[in-house]
UniProtKB/TrEMBL annotation:
Entry keyword set: Signal
Name of protein: Expressed sequence AU021092
GO molecular function: protein homodimerization activity
Residue runs in coiled coils: none
Region (Disordered): 343-385
GO-annotated cellular components: cytosol; membrane
Signal sequence range: 1-20
Keyword Transferase annotated: no
Native source species: Mus spicilegus
Comp. bias regions, Basic and acidic residues: 343-352
Record InterPro entries: DUF4735 (IPR031751)
Length: 385
């Protein structure tokens, strides 16, 4: 971690490069290279354990494939970036083949869950954000419901209604009053909150625009503002292991929802440091000799997920999935904001680059950067605020 931190600091301290330096040799090129290398390792992990990867794991890699295609396309027309574009494209091809194969295994291990959630691992379901926005700290709840106020089972029921994959053969985008109430309930945190956001995100992917979904953006604004708040808290407690999973899930979901301020350089650095360098997975740190099953218990910021799968070496399907989709998002926003136009350099402001300090109000810490999407478009690529 320390070495990587130093490297990123060095990258940030580099003077803006002159136009004679080719883009891949710059800080952004190095960053893209770091992310691609981490993702290639994670893809090897997927390949290695394919028969035992669960559906949640597959979803993360499906999102990654979409992000890599986006990156490949953006870089394909830039001569200097073609090697990076090809690398992204090759990884996307590998993933595409692996993900097709994974369906065969999921049919055997969890056929019902597969039938209900198959759309989410289908090519074409996930779409990259068209527009970018930022979270608005004034939408953070002044109070919270008791932790994780509803169960994963309830949120699964509502997601299945949304997808129209239940046994009652109802149409997609229909929802019961129960789900309408649950998915718009204020004051939720943890996985309840991230699943409320996921619900509206999938509604967008599914093309639901009527009724409640007229207000999709409104709810996403609220949920991601609160997910940002939780991520600041996770950072403030040093990303203690059980919170890493939710932290990365929040970046994965709100990033795909178009909230660019989740892509903070220091968060990228943290995530990269959590990868198991030998195996390529993400999961529990130092697990020597510990049992491979996670006890079902309540945590402070996290409830253990019902379908979480933890390998004996500490690798977690869900952690790896959220990590690769978060990292894929970092790569995509890097590609989106860095055409090789000669001034591609993250503005490093030492006053804002300091790690978030717990003595500060989380709201204040990121309110400064709460600019509209237009400002952001010409502004910093990776938020260092
Ligand atoms: C943030 O939300 C508040 C309350 O809805 C609103 O008044 C304000 O204009 C928003 N700020 C931005 C920058 O969008």
């Amino acid at each position: 971690m320390a070495r990587l931190g130093l490297l990123l600091l060095l990258l940030l301290a580099l003077p803006p490069h002159s136009s004679s330096v080719s883009w891949p040799d710059t800080a952004q090129g190095t960053m893209a290279n770091l992310i691609l290398t981490a993702l290639e390792k994670a893809t090897l992990f997927l390949e290695d354990r394919l028969p035992t990867i669960n559906l949640d794991g597959v979803v993360g890699f499906q999102v990654l494939e979409v992000q890599l295609r986006g990156v490949q396309e953006k870089w394909a027309h830039k001569p200097l970036l073609q090697p990076l574009s090809m690398r992204a494209g090759q990884m996307a091809n590998t993933l595409s083949a692996l993900l097709q194969k994974s369906i065969f295994y999921l049919k055997q291990s969890d056929p019902m869950y597969l039938r209900e959630f198959q759309p989410s691992i289908q090519p074409g379901f996930w779409k990259l954000p068209n527009d970018w926005t930022r979270t608005n700290a004034s939408l953070v709840y002044p109070w919270l419901e008791p932790l994780d106020s509803f169960s994963e089972e309830s949120s699964d029921v509502c997601l299945v209604q949304l997808l129209g994959t239940g046994t009652d053969s109802s149409q997609p985008c229909r929802l019961s009053n129960f789900c309408r109430t649950l998915m718009t309930k204020a004051g939720c945190s943890g996985y309840s909150l991230s699943h409320q956001l996921l619900f509206f995100l999938w509604a967008r992917m599914q093309g639901c625009t009527e009724g409640l979904f007229l207000q999709s953006q409104h709810y996403m604004d609220i949920f991601c503002a609160n997910m940002m708040e939780l991520n600041h808290r996770a950072e403030a407690i040093g990303y203690a292991y059980p919170t890493q999973d939710l932290f990365m899930e929040n970046i994965m979901f709100c990033g795909m929802a178009g909230f660019s301020d989740f892509y903070k350089l220091r968060w990228l650095e943290a995530i990269l440091s959590w990868q198991n360098p030998q195996v390529g997975c993400f999961g529990r740190p130092d697990t020597k000799g510990e049992p491979s099953e996670v006890p079902h218990q309540q945590g402070i910021l996290r409830r253990v997920r019902r379908r979480e799968k933890l390998f004996a070496d500490g690798c977690s399907c869900h952690n790896t999935a959220t990590a690769v989709a978060a990292l894929g998002g970092f790569l995509y926003i890097l590609a989106e904001y860095h055409p090789d136009n000669g001034d591609a350099h993250p503005e490093y402001d030492p006053n804002h680059g300091d790690p978030y300090s717990s003595s500060q109000s989380p709201a204040r810490n990121y309110q400064d950067g709460a600019a509209g999407p237009d400002v952001q478009r010409t502004g910093r690529p990776l938020s260092v605020s």
